[in-house]
């Protein structure tokens, strides 16, 4: 069976205030063309179809158009909800859509119930594991402590139990939306850390032939059978070095996997430039970036006058401007943002405790209190998304 693995469409998202709906529509057209030209048997979409729980009407219309075009080709599609989606909204009409070959898997309780798609060698069981917010699904899976690894392990136990009851030789594909250990994040994914732990080991998914992951925006191979497709478009300048693509996966009769990257169209290249304003304006080596979307980091010791307007004369698509003056590390004016770079909310809170105590950080009990407080806030936010 040949299937196309994609994820993280984020329909309705913009890029630094630039609307991306046209580029997203171009991607959908590219997806449909690939399905037709490469004789694809199925499409899997591993979550974050939309960028937010209540997407704009134009994004919903584009999603509707994509489903109709895929259904017209007679190619079944399996989709799960991601942490940006409203599972309830995305799952509306799932039963009726399934009759047209569009299989939406948004309910955690259905993790062990596959979509069965046959080919010349028998059935392939596609199991959809939507994004599992630990605090909201712990009762469903009967786990004592809410955590990403515990709930995903419980969901995979259901998958393996169902698969074991099926005829020998049944091949299996799991769709999941999670941060798996070894994956490389970017700046555009929403943090899903719980209990200070965001990632789960790839070993959680043992026992199936292929794992189609979503959530991280870079296309990545964790093992030959566990892969991220990444987002089809860049949604932050941290993705400037990404090659945006989808995985074209061939699943052989014996479960062997071969995968090929299929590139996605890019509306405009990205460039991250760094230097003084005069250097950026004068350097001839930067000519290839003059039509790119640009993030410029200025290192001038003193902020120059009208930097954005002057940059736009050479780089008309400059979207982001960062000031990072070159100063000695011990300079008292080193920015607060630089001191916080790369630290998560819990680490910042612990640093604050150490600061107000003259260097004495929180003890183990206090760390647990802080962790639980952040988890409670995250769970409350997730519950509000579900209720919207």
TrEMBL record:
GO process terms (BP): DNA recombination; DNA replication
Keywords per UniProt: DNA recombination, DNA replication, Endonuclease, Exonuclease, Hydrolase, Nuclease
InterPro entries, alphabetized: Calcineurin-like_PHP, DNA_Repair-Maintenance_Comp, Metallo-depent_PP-like, Mre11_N, SbcD, SbcD_C
SUPFAM superfamilies on file: Metallo-dependent phosphatases (SSF56300)
Domain Nuclease SbcCD subunit D C-terminal: 267-355
Domain Calcineurin-like phosphoesterase, chain residue ranges per copy: 1-218
GO molecular function: 3'-5' exonuclease activity; endonuclease activity
Keyword Nucleotide-binding on entry: no
Family of this protein: Belongs to the SbcD family.
Described purpose of this protein according to its UniProt entry: SbcCD cleaves DNA hairpin structures. These structures can inhibit DNA replication and are intermediates in certain DNA recombination reactions. The complex acts as a 3'->5' double strand exonuclease that can open hairpins. It also has a 5' single-strand endonuclease activity.
Complexes and interactors: Heterodimer of SbcC and SbcD.
Protein name, as recorded: Nuclease SbcCD subunit D
Taxonomic classification: Bacteria, Bacillati, Actinomycetota, Actinomycetes, Kitasatosporales
